[in-house]
Amino acid sequence: MFEPRIIKVSCPHCGAGLRINPQAAVVTCSYCQRSSFIHLPNRVDPPAPSGTQNYGHIHVSAAKAKQVVVLSVALGLLVVGLAVGGVVIAIMARSGTGRPHRTSLPASTRANHGNADACDKAVACCKALLGAVPGQPQNERTCEALRALTDAECSKQHETFRNSAKQLGQACD
Description:
Layout: E1 7-10, E2 17-20, E3 26-28, E4 35-39, E5 56-59, H1 62-98, H2 116-130, H3 137-144, H4 151-167
Helix pairs in contact: 2-3, 2-4
Protein backbone atom coordinates (compact mmCIF):
# COMPACT_ATOMS: atom_id res chain seq x y z
CA MET A 1 0.00 0.00 0.00
CA PHE A 2 1.07 3.58 -0.59
CA GLU A 3 2.77 4.97 2.52
CA PRO A 4 2.70 8.67 3.32
CA ARG A 5 6.09 10.35 3.33
CA ILE A 6 5.56 13.00 6.01
CA ILE A 7 2.93 13.25 8.73
CA LYS A 8 2.41 16.31 10.93
CA VAL A 9 2.08 15.57 14.66
CA SER A 10 3.00 17.29 17.91
CA CYS A 11 5.62 16.36 20.49
CA PRO A 12 4.03 14.61 23.52
CA HIS A 13 6.52 16.35 25.85
CA CYS A 14 6.50 20.04 24.82
CA GLY A 15 3.71 20.23 22.21
CA ALA A 16 5.96 21.50 19.41
CA GLY A 17 4.98 20.57 15.87
CA LEU A 18 6.85 17.66 14.33
CA ARG A 19 7.02 16.25 10.85
CA ILE A 20 7.69 12.57 10.99
CA ASN A 21 8.73 10.01 8.44
CA PRO A 22 6.40 7.02 8.87
CA GLN A 23 9.22 4.57 8.15
CA ALA A 24 11.10 5.80 11.24
CA ALA A 25 10.50 4.11 14.60
CA VAL A 26 11.67 7.03 16.78
CA VAL A 27 11.58 10.80 16.31
CA THR A 28 13.51 13.44 18.29
CA CYS A 29 11.95 16.84 18.95
CA SER A 30 14.15 19.71 17.79
CA TYR A 31 12.93 21.92 20.67
CA CYS A 32 13.04 19.76 23.80
CA GLN A 33 15.49 17.17 22.39
CA ARG A 34 13.38 14.29 23.72
CA SER A 35 12.66 11.19 21.69
CA SER A 36 9.31 9.55 21.11
CA PHE A 37 8.14 6.27 19.58
CA ILE A 38 6.00 6.45 16.47
CA HIS A 39 2.99 4.14 16.48
CA LEU A 40 1.31 3.77 13.08
CA PRO A 41 -1.82 1.78 12.28
CA ASN A 42 -1.19 -1.60 10.62
CA ARG A 43 2.46 -1.65 11.71
CA VAL A 44 4.08 -3.76 14.39
CA ASP A 45 5.60 -1.53 17.07
CA PRO A 46 9.40 -1.72 17.30
CA PRO A 47 11.00 -2.92 20.53
CA ALA A 48 11.80 -0.22 23.09
CA PRO A 49 15.47 0.80 23.16
CA SER A 50 17.41 0.04 26.30
CA GLY A 51 18.29 2.93 28.58
CA THR A 52 16.82 5.04 31.27
CA GLN A 53 15.46 7.84 29.09
CA ASN A 54 11.73 8.40 29.32
CA TYR A 55 10.35 7.99 25.79
CA GLY A 56 7.06 9.52 24.75
CA HIS A 57 4.64 7.86 22.40
CA ILE A 58 3.11 9.36 19.26
CA HIS A 59 0.05 7.52 18.02
CA VAL A 60 -0.87 8.36 14.43
CA SER A 61 -4.48 7.62 13.66
CA ALA A 62 -5.48 5.79 10.49
CA ALA A 63 -7.53 8.81 9.43
CA LYS A 64 -4.51 11.12 9.69
CA ALA A 65 -2.33 8.72 7.70
CA LYS A 66 -5.08 8.39 5.07
CA GLN A 67 -5.47 12.17 4.91
CA VAL A 68 -1.81 12.54 3.95
CA VAL A 69 -2.20 9.90 1.24
CA VAL A 70 -5.29 11.60 -0.18
CA LEU A 71 -3.56 14.99 -0.05
CA SER A 72 -0.52 13.59 -1.88
CA VAL A 73 -2.68 12.04 -4.60
CA ALA A 74 -4.74 15.23 -4.98
CA LEU A 75 -1.58 17.31 -5.26
CA GLY A 76 -0.18 14.92 -7.87
CA LEU A 77 -3.39 15.12 -9.91
CA LEU A 78 -3.31 18.92 -9.69
CA VAL A 79 0.25 19.03 -11.02
CA VAL A 80 -0.62 16.67 -13.88
CA GLY A 81 -3.76 18.71 -14.67
CA LEU A 82 -1.79 21.95 -14.76
CA ALA A 83 0.84 20.39 -17.02
CA VAL A 84 -1.78 19.08 -19.46
CA GLY A 85 -3.62 22.41 -19.37
CA GLY A 86 -0.39 24.27 -20.12
CA VAL A 87 0.32 22.06 -23.11
CA VAL A 88 -3.23 22.53 -24.44
CA ILE A 89 -3.03 26.31 -24.03
CA ALA A 90 0.37 26.39 -25.72
CA ILE A 91 -0.92 24.38 -28.68
CA MET A 92 -4.01 26.57 -29.01
CA ALA A 93 -1.99 29.78 -28.80
CA ARG A 94 0.55 28.55 -31.32
CA SER A 95 -2.02 27.45 -33.87
CA GLY A 96 -4.07 30.64 -33.50
CA THR A 97 -1.50 33.40 -33.71
CA GLY A 98 1.92 31.80 -33.52
CA ARG A 99 2.70 31.60 -37.19
CA PRO A 100 1.68 34.05 -39.85
CA HIS A 101 -0.47 32.57 -42.55
CA ARG A 102 1.08 32.41 -45.96
CA THR A 103 -0.56 34.73 -48.40
CA SER A 104 0.03 34.13 -52.03
CA LEU A 105 0.81 37.02 -54.30
CA PRO A 106 -1.21 37.26 -57.46
CA ALA A 107 0.55 35.42 -60.21
CA SER A 108 0.84 38.43 -62.42
CA THR A 109 3.24 38.20 -65.32
CA ARG A 110 4.02 40.39 -68.27
CA ALA A 111 1.09 38.82 -70.08
CA ASN A 112 -1.28 40.15 -67.40
CA HIS A 113 0.02 43.68 -67.70
CA GLY A 114 -1.44 45.90 -70.32
CA ASN A 115 1.67 48.08 -70.01
CA ALA A 116 4.70 45.98 -69.12
CA ASP A 117 6.89 49.07 -69.45
CA ALA A 118 5.65 50.42 -66.08
CA CYS A 119 7.05 47.45 -64.18
CA ASP A 120 10.22 47.36 -66.28
CA LYS A 121 10.80 51.04 -65.52
CA ALA A 122 10.13 50.51 -61.80
CA VAL A 123 12.54 47.55 -61.67
CA ALA A 124 15.23 49.46 -63.58
CA CYS A 125 14.85 52.51 -61.33
CA CYS A 126 14.94 50.32 -58.21
CA LYS A 127 18.13 48.64 -59.39
CA ALA A 128 19.68 52.03 -60.14
CA LEU A 129 18.93 53.20 -56.59
CA LEU A 130 19.68 50.00 -54.65
CA GLY A 131 22.26 48.55 -57.00
CA ALA A 132 24.89 50.99 -55.76
CA VAL A 133 25.38 48.86 -52.63
CA PRO A 134 27.98 46.16 -53.44
CA GLY A 135 27.57 42.63 -52.08
CA GLN A 136 23.81 42.93 -51.49
CA PRO A 137 22.13 40.31 -53.75
CA GLN A 138 18.87 40.72 -51.84
CA ASN A 139 18.53 44.21 -53.36
CA GLU A 140 18.25 42.74 -56.86
CA ARG A 141 15.67 40.19 -55.66
CA THR A 142 13.71 42.98 -54.00
CA CYS A 143 13.65 44.95 -57.23
CA GLU A 144 12.66 41.92 -59.32
CA ALA A 145 9.74 41.28 -56.94
CA LEU A 146 8.15 44.47 -58.28
CA ARG A 147 7.20 42.52 -61.40
CA ALA A 148 4.44 40.82 -59.36
CA LEU A 149 2.61 44.13 -58.93
CA THR A 150 -0.19 45.47 -61.07
CA ASP A 151 0.41 48.21 -63.65
CA ALA A 152 -1.02 50.89 -61.37
CA GLU A 153 1.17 49.80 -58.46
CA CYS A 154 4.25 49.63 -60.71
CA SER A 155 3.55 53.17 -61.94
CA LYS A 156 3.30 54.44 -58.34
CA GLN A 157 6.53 52.68 -57.38
CA HIS A 158 8.31 54.05 -60.45
CA GLU A 159 7.21 57.57 -59.56
CA THR A 160 8.44 57.11 -55.98
CA PHE A 161 11.80 55.78 -57.18
CA ARG A 162 12.17 58.71 -59.63
CA ASN A 163 11.51 61.24 -56.86
CA SER A 164 14.02 59.49 -54.59
CA ALA A 165 16.61 59.44 -57.36
CA LYS A 166 16.15 63.18 -57.97
CA GLN A 167 16.69 63.88 -54.24
CA LEU A 168 19.89 61.83 -54.35
CA GLY A 169 21.07 63.54 -57.50
CA GLN A 170 20.69 60.43 -59.63
CA ALA A 171 18.69 59.67 -62.72
CA CYS A 172 16.73 56.49 -63.30
CA ASP A 173 14.82 57.17 -66.52
